[in-house]
Amino acid sequence: MQSRFVTADDAPPPGGREAGGQREERAVIAVLVVFCEVAFWVLLAAGLALRYVARKPRLGAAVLLCEPLLEVVLLVVTVIDLRNGAEPDWKHGLAAVYIGFTVGLGHHTIKWVDARVAHRWFDGPPPVKPPKYGMARAAHEWRTAARWILAAVVALGLLQAAIWYVGPGDGTASLQGWQQKMGLVIGINLIIAAGYTLFPKQAPKDAAAEREPADRP
């Protein structure tokens, strides 16, 4: 039996099986992000249906409590992908951002949808509108900004953890790009909230007294 060395002619061409396998692994992350987003709304609809249609509030609450499991699955798959040697790209960054925004905004989004579904179809009380004027509006904007900033900070932490895990090099450029975007999210929310604080909108003299504010998602 003859043995021979692998030459350049024997090497797989660029974009061949190995490159294709890496592309497939990265595609899994992107598909999983989409799946988690769809599953979030499916679980939300199922939980509300059980609560109001089937009159099983405990079972509905149990379904809604399954929402965080989606982020756990996405986080585990992303870590495994990086551990197996995948080069970090925008899809890994997107996964970190999705998890961060679900942590910061997910719970409030569920409450926001719940209140409106209850009012529109099941004789629940009308949702209280946010204030329009003065420092009450500023306080509302700061609460909104706090949720978005929390989402961005969680995403920043996950992105930085991925950068430390992968190690220094050009491969982390896409993750650092996502970090810059999260910094922009924080800055925009701070500017908006500060604007309402420094330049509060004044109510018309004949404006009726408003009710206490309710946060928006």
TrEMBL record:
**Where along the sequence do coiled-coil regions lie?**
none
List every stretch annotated Disordered: 1-20
Report TM segments. Answer: 27-50, 62-80, 92-110, 145-166, 178-199
Going by the UniProt record, its keywords in alphabetical order are:
Membrane, Transmembrane, Transmembrane helix
Name the domain of life this protein comes from: Bacteria
The entry's protein name is Membrane protein
Q: Which organism is it from?
A: Streptomyces microflavus DSM 40593
